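ARCHIVE CARD
Drawer: 12
Card no.: 0347
Subject: one protein chain, sequence and derived structure
Cross-reference: see card 0346
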Amino acid sequence: MSMWAALASNKQRVSEVYAFDARGAPSSAGAAIQWFNARSDTVLRMTGGYQLAANEGIRMSIEKLAGGPVSRVTATPPNRKAYAAGSNPLWDHVITFYPELRERVDVWHQFAVFGGYVAVPGPFALTFLQRFLQDSLF
């Protein structure tokens, strides 16, 4: 909840938010959407385990108001199915080393660090975290 409170207190100075399972997303959704839509330079990237429905709701609300997809906002993965066995080979690979992560929602935000969505194999393949950062022009 403190991340969303920090955003609310500094919304004029903040242009990018990277929320790794930031608690309080449901109660802060309206303020997050208003912050995002107040300027054209905002970027909102959300991931996690506990806040999946709220994150996806924020993304969908922003896109509904915009009338279509908005590349500056992502909520990944969109639901719990992304953490199920067989859904993502990168996550499944991590689970072979840390099997306890499969059922521990409290660490699912590590999905972003350990690969996220599958990229085309090769030297230019990007993990979710790399895309997360590159999309912010890091």
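Annotation on reverse: The longest helix spans residues 52-66. DSSP finds six helices and three strands in the chain.
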